[in-house]
Amino acid sequence: MDGFESNDGVILIASTNRPDVLDPALLRPGRFDRRVVVSRPDVRGREGILKVHTRKIPLGEDVDISVIARGTPGFTGADLANLVNEAALNAARYNKKLVAMPDFELAKDKVLMGAERKSMVISPDEKRNTAYHEAGHTLVGLKVPNADPVHKVTIIPRGMALGLTQQLPEGDRHSATKEYLLGQIAIMMGGRIAEEMFFGANNVTTGASNDIERATELARAMVCEYGMSELGPLTFGKKEEQIFLGREIAQHRDFSEDTAIKIDQEVKKIVSAQYERAKSLIEENRDTMVRLSETLLERESLDGVQIRRIVAGLPLDDDQPPAGGDDERPQLKEPTVKPLKPILPPITGSNPATA
User: Fold this and answer.
1) Do 130 and 175 belong to one domain?
2) For the whole prediction, is pTM greater than 0.70?
3) Looking at the predicted structure, is the pLDDT value of residue 317 above 70?
């Protein structure tokens, strides 16, 4: 590899997850002078990988590989193999001869959101609070323009969350606009606003802690990294990373105290503006919010089609079984009461964050 000797017929191949720390002398012509970037597969790649993994699995007539590929953005080959394996296990659990589309949907929920916490006992008050929290995310997600479509909402505990609202993009997204990022912050604020609006400011829970953290981080990135604020197209703060671990260990501060104050003001301004935006959307659609929350309490899980029928004021198909969990247990119905005033007592202790 010194460039002085002829090495015909010899090809050297190496791989790394940290191309940014390679010595430039190693990458000069004559050595590793061809760099091939292997990224996560796109929708066509995922469809091809799924065809390979499902080649020896008996599939039902309702299984559409292209639909599964579109619904799994960001999945690697190993993730897709795990998805197919979980779907096959779920079909075998119920002695099915074919793996159907609902098996893939349940497998996708398990891979994305974790397994159900079937042994977890939730009080009626916490369950109602979680339903309104997730309905707040869902409603704002439907009303904000250019947001990813809401794919599913559930109040069945999975992983560390009491409930989850899942959005899936219609296609692979490689970059994001300022409007899209602002909409994401508004969606994150929807859960806390729903709690405050329907249960009172003194009865909000810790369930929105993760939402607030992610919204603040995104707003700060818009100001300090993306140049999407009134401070102009500037970047603030140089991150110092440990090259062998790939983790950020410090951030070099290259701005003044006055600029730091302005950054904090811009971050607060962005989050507060989207908080008010989400609040106005929920206030304008209060009846829809109540209808969506109460249906979610009754069925525990709703898919995208059901959510849009509820928002449009259309009845759900009663012949269709509720979208429940992995064990298809019967859904417990609770009385439908429109909470027009605070109905929860003060909640103490910790509450796992809901997404």
Assistant:
1) yes
2) yes
3) no
Range of the domain at 93: 43-113
Question: How many Å apart are CA 254 and CA 120, to the nearest integer?
Answer: 48
Q: How many CA atoms does the CB half-sphere of 339 hold within 13 Å? A: 22
Q: Are residues 76 and 144 in the same domain?
A: no
Q: Which residue has the tokens 């009846």?
A: 287
Question: 90, 113, 136 — which closes off a domain?
Answer: 113
Show which residues are catalytic: 134
Residue 327 DSSP one-character state: T
What token pair was written down for 318?
Answer: 């009663």
Across all residues in the chain, what is the average pLDDT?
A: 80
Strands 164-167 and 238-242: unpaired
Under 8 Å between Cβ of 167 and 151: yes
Quote the number of domains for the chain: 2
Widest distance between CA atoms in the chain: 83
* d(C-alpha 81, C-alpha 107), whole Å: 11
Same-domain pairing of 131 and 104: no
Q: Single out the residue in 61, 91, 113 at which a domain terminates.
A: 113
Q: What is the mean pLDDT of residues 301-306?
A: 86
Cα separation, 174 vs 43, whole angstroms: 12
Q: What is the mean pLDDT of residues 291-308?
A: 88
| AA letter at 290 | V
Percent of the chain with pLDDT over 90: 27
CATH number assigned to the domain comprising residue 208: 1.20.58.760
176 and 253 within one domain: yes
Element spanning 238, H or E: strand 238-242
Angle between helices 178-199 and 257-284 (to 10 degrees): 60
Q: Is the dihedral of CA 217, 220, 224, 226 positive or negative?
A: positive
CB-based contact 101:62 (threshold 8 Å)? yes
pLDDT digits (tens, 9 = 90+) for 177-190: 999 999 999 999 99
